[in-house]
């Protein structure tokens, strides 16, 4: 693990000492290869469920999400090159962007593997610092505003999460805050402290998972950052937030009445996130913010799945995995749209079907998959969550979810039709039509659809292990 | 000794609510850093060189010297000094006292036998004071001060519940916070340069 971290960090900062964009691309390629090799070695030598370097542990949850992150990182690095060249950024800016993106991925990897509550917090705060540079990369007025809000709200939110960790640590023996040690003694903790700790941690980490209440900073960050970076932030970083909350959730599994309370809290946060997503999907006039609100909506569904538990918990993890592919692909598609129109404005751009047919079909398919129409994998996860809600007899929740999801379907579908058939009011930059990028975005969608019709046994086994909290 | 320092700390929080100049608020933050250093030293049961060194770095050097110096530099570069004229001193003081009463009440109901009630109450009061500053003040610099008061509250909170995290983790936490402050200070200066403003009213260009 130490070797992997040192090599990754060296490669991440290496673009700062090279001269050309080509050399930066080679370094990025090497960085991606190192990540692939690390996962390969972990699986090959069977290092699963082993402690690494005192504060890390390679469990199924960490390896699965590292694998997903590496995949989306590869695509993000590829799309970033075209995006930055089309934007005409300087070589220094190009190198700084790649450095920050790779540093962010190192911080996220550390969050995934961290086996200690406090270190998870430290690495999540590190992701804030790395993300800030990427959000500010385009250096316009709104990006400055978004960056300030992102750092400030995330830091304040994370400080609240730290308070929760301190309260949680009252149960720790000899100050040990690793998840395993805490799980052994958490049932003996003061129930009031445990409840407040859970509340503070969830609220604090909500800025990373993009759920209610601190979802706003993620929306602004995705809006201001370059599209390929937004794709990475709204999948890999959101997954880091999810994973951090999931680890706390698993920790609480043995706390009886407190766990029940925590699950109710997750349902409340989930339904509020879904409501916010549905409401703002109708209101927003920017395609990137539009996709970000869709992330809020999907993470709301995930939180509800976690709150319901049982088969819905399995579905929640599966939903996050599949959402990673779909949302990544959609952000890349929006990045390609920006190449052509030089705008993300929903009201002004249109006629996309006639301008870039490959991209338009990709966007159509992506929308259908995002809306969970079969064979979308999200259809499976959402049906499983609905099934479990019916099984526990929570009819009000089912009704609220169905109403809100109808609003979501209307909002997303009407915007997609508008993009493809509404008359265009903006100037076109047809040189920006790059079908290879559209095809590469479609690969991720294809992967998602494959998961919709066939779930590999190994993936099901890993998710089974993750949700085995009894 | 500890009680005197705690009372002084409460007074700094009360004074923070009525301070009209950012220089005064920064000075209060430096004083809070020194008080936290005194409290942490007074609470040490036996002498550990590593723990002692860490306390000196975290409180005296970091909270009492480095951060106030960064803030003073920001004030100097951006030439901001007075807090917004719209906030009344009496209103701020009343809110601060209400926060103190709320902290005492919450502490009474929450603190258990393993928790130091005085530290718990003061930490809570510091957190509420920071949040009030962030919510009530319009200038961005005041938000930064509010965030730092919250961080000091978190430090007191860790003492209230007697948590002793490993030095490595404490160091990582401290570095994270220091870098956040540096970056926030840097962006505040950039906002002043590019947007010619330091008021939150100007941060509304991103909306749906």
Description:
The complex is a heterodimer of chains A (470) and B (208). By secondary structure, chain A is mainly alpha-helical. Chain A has helices spanning 2-13, 21-44, 60-87, 91-113, 117-135, 141-168, 179-185, 191-209, 215-224, 227-251, 257-283, 287-308, 311-341, 352-355, 357-370, 377-392, 395-421, 435-453, 457-467, and strands spanning 51-52, 56-57. Chain A is 78% helix and 1% strand. In chain A, strands 1-2 form a two-stranded antiparallel sheet. Chain B has seven helices and no strands. In chain B, helix 4 (89-110) runs antiparallel to helix 5. Chain B is globular, with a radius of gyration of 17 Å. The model of chain B has no long low-confidence stretch (mean pLDDT 86). The chains are: A mainly alpha (470), B mainly alpha (208). The A-B interface holds A 116, 118-119, 121-122, 125-126, 128-129, 132, 136, 141-142, 144-149, 151-152, 155-156, 159, 162-163, 166-167, 169-170, 172, 175, 177, 190, 192-193, 196, 220, 223-224, 280, 283-286, 289 and B 110, 112, 114-115, 127, 134, 140, 143-144, 147, 150-151, 154, 157-158, 161, 163-166, 169, 172-173, 176-177, 179-180, 183-184, 187-188, 190-191, 194-195, 203, 205-206, 208.
What integer value in Å does the Rg of chain B equal? Answer: 17 Å
Spatially, the strands of the biggest sheet of chain A line up as: 1-2
Largest sheet of chain B: none
Total of DSSP H or I helical runs spanning 4+ residues of chain B: 7
The tally of strands of chain B reads 0
Shape, per Cα inertia axes of chain A: globular
What kind of sheet is the major sheet of chain A? 2 strands, antiparallel
**Helical proportion of chain A, percent range:** over 70%
List how many beta strands of chain A DSSP finds: 2
